[in-house]
Write a structure and sequence with these properties.
The chain is mainly alpha-helical and 246 residues long. Helix 6 packs antiparallel against helix 7, helix 7 runs antiparallel to helix 8 and helix 7 runs parallel beside helix 9. It is 69% helix and 3% strand. It contains ten helices and two strands. The protein folds into two domains: 64 residues, Arc Repressor Mutant, subunit A; 159 residues, Up-down Bundle (Four Helix Bundle (Hemerythrin (Met), subunit A)), CATH 1.20.120. Strands 1-2 form a two-stranded antiparallel sheet.
């Protein structure tokens, strides 16, 4: 991949990003990807502000947004803890996780759910959500390994689910990420595939940042079609190689 390529964001939300937005983005990402889990207790306000090198006012702004999103709970004398997923989400996990799923069925489910989530993200994303998505996209620019590209791909889609502000639909993204990890790796196997993934994510983020729900939905649909084509291509090559060896 060349270093010169860049996903250009054509539109910008009018609201200026604040230090609090960046703190929110950092903590929300840790929760979304599972580095901070339900029941984990955060350090005190003073300790956390010091660790993040921000003012306590900026930290309070972030805590207020995370609390409004039902990601944390603050109680006087008991500190701040990460909240579990809502009951209807955990019930969904219990019912469908671990069951056998065909790759084609999961691809069809992604095509049905993720474009709609992208459109919701375009309508509902906060400044912190946009920062988190932009950070992941920037990290993916020029990434050299398929493993790292896959990790960032999963993070990007999980963060779109969070930006859509629809807990039940976002939970499907988490489930589908676990179901598709092995086949999804096929769409990151080459430098060309990783570049297509990066550019597809860039088009989606452009539309979300511009607040264009229709464009976000179309960009996600196009990205998923491209990913599916790459996956099927690589599956075909693997089967062909296996057949020749036999």
């Amino acid at each position: 991949m060349t270093e010169s390529r860049t996903a250009t964001v054509s539109g910008r939300r009018s609201r200026a990003r604040t230090v609090g937005d960046r703190v929110t983005a950092r903590l929300e990402k840790l929760i979304v990807v599972g580095d901070l889990q339900a029941g984990d207790r955060l350090p005190s306000e003073r300790e956390l502000a010091s660790a993040l090198n921000v003012s306590r006012a900026s930290l309070r702004e972030a805590m207020h947004e995370l609390e409004a999103k039902h990601l944390i709970e603050r109680r006087p004398g008991r500190g701040t803890t990460v909240l579990p997923a809502p009951e209807h989400v955990t019930a969904l996990y219990a019912q469908v996780d671990g069951k056998k799923r065909e790759a084609r069925e999961v691809a069809e489910l992604r095509a049905a759910v993720e474009p709609r989530l992208a459109s919701f993200a375009a309508m509902r994303a906060t400044g912190a959500n946009l920062i988190a998505l932009s950070d992941v996209l920037a990290e993916a620019n020029g990434v050299a390994t398929s493993e790292e590209s896959l990790r960032l791909d999963l993070e990007f889609h999980l963060l779109i689910g969070r930006a859509a502000d629809s807990a039940l639909m976002a939970s499907l993204i988490t489930l589908m990420a676990s179901w598709t990890k092995s086949t999804r790796a096929l769409s990151h196997a080459t430098a060309h595939a990783r570049e297509l993934s990066y550019l597809g994510h860039g088009a989606i983020l452009d539309a979300i940042t511009a607040g264009d729900a229709g464009a976000a939905e179309a960009a996600m649909s196009a990205h998923l079609r491209e990913v599916d084509e790459l996956t099927q291509e690589n599956l075909g090559r693997r089967r062909g190689t296996s057949g020749r060896r036999a």
